[in-house]
Every structure is written in C-alpha cells, then in structure tokens.
Amino acid sequence: MAGLESASVGIWVSAGGRHERLEQNGIAHFLEHMAFKGTKRRSALQIAEAIEDVGGYINAYTSREVTAYYARVLKADVPLALDVIGDIVMNPVFDPKEIEIERGVILQEIGQARDTPDDVIFDWLQEESYHDQPLGRTILGPEERVKAFSKADLSGFVSEHYGPEQMILSAAGAVDHDVLVRLAEAAFGHLTRGHSTAASKAKFTGGEVRQTKKLEQAHFALAFESPGYRDDDIYTAQIYSSVLGGGMSSRLFQEVREARGLCYTIFAQTGAYADTGVTTIYAGTSGEQVAELATITIDEMKRAATDMTPEEVARARAQMKAGMLMGLESPSNRAERLARLVQIWDKVPPLSDTIARIDAVTSERLLTFAEQMASTAPAALALYGPIEGAPTLAALQERRAA
Fold first, then answer.
1. pTM, to two decimals
2. Three-state secondary-structure class, residue 109
3. Which of 40, 348, 349, 364 has its CA 20 to 30 A from that of 335?
C-alpha cells in the first residue's frame, strides 16, 4: 500500500469454535490466550515488550471459524513482528502456572460476558440457530470445561489444528512481498504438512430461548437462515439486511425508532460461514413495548417483500461498496480480508469481481429473497429481560404466514 509507513502482519489459523469437539468447547479461545503467556524463546513480558518497544501493537481473536494472531508495526519492524507472531503460534510452552493464571482471566471474561445482556442474547441466538452443533456453541466455552483444560489438552488441539496447511500468513501496508516470502520460508519452512480436519457440516435448526430477568431493557433478537459465504446470494442477503436495518435510513430504524420511538438501538445484519449464514435483527426496548416492536419488525419484513424500491437497493449497494473500499484503506482490514479470501477461495479474487457481484444483484432478486425471509426462511428467537409480554416464536411465525 504505497505511501504508508506501517504494516499489519498476522497468521490466520483455520481453527475456531466450530472445529472443537464437545469436550473441547472453549479450547481454541483458551489457546489464543496462552499464546501470549510465554514461548521457548520469550516470556510473556518479553512478548509484549518486543512489539511495544518499537511502538507497535499485537493482539489476537478467536471466532467460530478462525483464530488470528496479528501485529501492527512500522515498516522497518515487519521482520520483528513476523518473528514474534511465528514464535507465539509455533512455540508456546504452556507453563502450568501460566495456565492457571490465564484460566482465572478467562473465567472473569465469561463472567463479564454474562453481565452484558447483548453478549448473552447473541450466544443464545447462535445456540438456538444451530442446536447441538459445534457452530452453535459459545466461543468462550462453559465454565466447567475451562476449569478442566490441561496442558495436554492445549497441546493436543495444536497438534490437530495448527499444521501449515491450516495457516495463512497475510500482510498489508508497507511490506515487500519478496522479502516477506523469504522471512516466511525462514520462519516456517521447517514445518511438515499433516492433515486438515474438516469441520462438521452445519444445519440451521431454529428454535426459541427466553429468560425473564429484572433489567432496564427487554433484549429481542431474531435470526433467519441465510446463504454461506461461497453462495452468490450472500451479496443479496447483505444488501437486503442493509435495506432492512443497516443504517439510519433503513426501514427498521425509520419505522421503529424514528416514527414510533420504541427503541434506541435496532439493526439488521448478515453474517456468513463456510456452509451457512444468518441474518440477524436485534433491538432493545422496554418490557411494555417489546410485543409491539416484535410485531412491527415482522410487518416491516413483509412490507419489504412487496415494495422495496430501486432507490433503497441502490443506497444499500452503495453503502456496501463504500464500506468495503473504505475499509481497504486500513492495512489491518486489508490483511484480514486477504487472509479470509484465501481461506474461502484459496486465492484472492480481484476487487473488481466482488464489486461486479454486488452490482449484479437485481431488485427482482432482492424482492424474491425478501419474500423468503419474511415467510419461509427458518427462524430462531432469543429474548432476555422483562419479556413477559413478548410474543413466542410460534406467534411470530403465524404473523409471517398471515
């Protein structure tokens, strides 16, 4: 990326929550934490100091399909960043004392998530959407499993899922490709190819979970089965969710918040996995108004299936393209995009191809998709807080069918 003085470099590993067996639930995230707790060459403090001494930033995250380790540094420090990241990914020591310390940290993280209603409700919604499947389990894992993980468990997960065929090295910004390749050969060339363990195929099941609790707001979340990221209709789904609830001009925002004042936050978004996807609608409102909000949401979905305008479609399409292009001005976003594209397609399709696919979504296709979402797409519902008067999923399904 010409003109930049910094770079983002990282390793994306195809080992997330959905790659865990039931007894391993939470271990991918635990492993991400332990990567920073010491290697054969560096202590935990030395890992942090190595990057922060040069003014850089290092972090990691675990999702349901990937664990990423990345750093942002000035261009002269790219070799250092790659050396540190390679070290924490390939050489963790899993010191038993550090395991116990980090176990406590993760248990605190689980407790914090439980105290955050909009974290809780999305975990519940995911579980209802993919019942009794790895994709439906929480990334943090249950307390009882986190309390039991041992050094052998962590080492075993690394052996299963951290082979070179499951890792992608991605960098963007002030980087020289040829130099990066030489550095990668030196750092990773000794690794031997093993076998890749495929995640089990996901099936959207749908369902309902509701828990009454004394909170200020009733939290309402709906999920509908949508295309996976290898399906051309992923762009249809993303444009649809933008029209429905993607911004201040969206239908849900204008009707539910601006016209009726029923909430502060309401949005719709589409997420995708390798073989499935979810379009989600979320809002927070008072217990007295949650029933009205829920029924209006279904009504707006039905209305979108009949009178979505070309102007709305054009606006959503422009927002989607602008968001993508603006994001590519960040080296961190660009490095992540490159890694995910290689993970999905085993190549990086030209940006012009992606834009062409977005532009190819017609109003007619969107109306057809909107009709499916409003009437027949499998659904899941999660409710949390003062939700005594909230409708059931069955009641909302009847309204969809009416």
1. 0.94
2. helix
3. 40
Arithmetic mean of pLDDT, 14-35: 97
Residue 251 neighbours by CB distance under 10 Å: 20
Q: Closest by alpha carbon to 225, among 237, 235, 236?
A: 237
pLDDT at 200: 86
Geometric angle at alpha carbon 24, from 64 and 122, rounded to 5°: 40
| Exposed e or buried b per residue across 151-177, where buried means at least 16 C-beta atoms within 10 angstroms of its C-beta | eebbeebbebbbbeebbbbbbbbbbee
How many other CB atoms sit within 10 Å of the CB of residue 383? 26
Non-local (6+) Cβ contacts of 125 within 8 A are 209, 221, 222, 223, 280, 380, 381, 382
Nearest 5°: the CA angle 42, 108, 160 is 55
Please name which of 122, 112, 119, 117 lies closest in space to residue 385, comparing C-alpha atoms. 117
Q: Kind and range of the H or E element at 46?
A: helix 44-52
CA distances from 71 to 55, 333, 341 (A): 11, 12, 19
Distant-in-sequence, close-in-space partners of 171: CB < 8 Å, separation ≥ 6: 7, 8, 9, 10, 78, 82, 180, 335
Which tokens in the block code for residue 256? 């539910």
pLDDT of residue 137: 97
Give CA–CA dist 17/275, Å, rounded.
Answer: 15
Q: What is the pLDDT of residues 200-258, one digit of tens each?
A: 899 999 999 999 999 999 999 999 999 999 998 999 999 999 999 999 999 999 999 99
| Residue 197: band (very low, low, confident or very high) from pLDDT cuts 50, 70, 90 | confident
Grade residue 105 by pLDDT with cuts at 50, 70 and 90. very high
Hey, which residues are catalytic here?
Answer: 32
Phi-psi region of 329 (alpha: psi -120 to 50; beta: other; left: phi over 0): alpha
Strand partners, 170: 10
Compute CA distances 97 → 37, 40, 60, 203, 218, whole Å. 10, 15, 21, 40, 42
How many other C-beta atoms are found inside a 10 Å radius of the C-beta of residue 357? 14
pLDDT of residue 280 exceeding 80, the answer is yes
**165 pLDDT above the threshold of 90:** yes
- The values of phi and psi at residue 376, to 5°, are -115, -15
Distances in Å between the Cα of 266 and the Cα atoms of 124, 183, 213, 387 are 18, 46, 21, 17
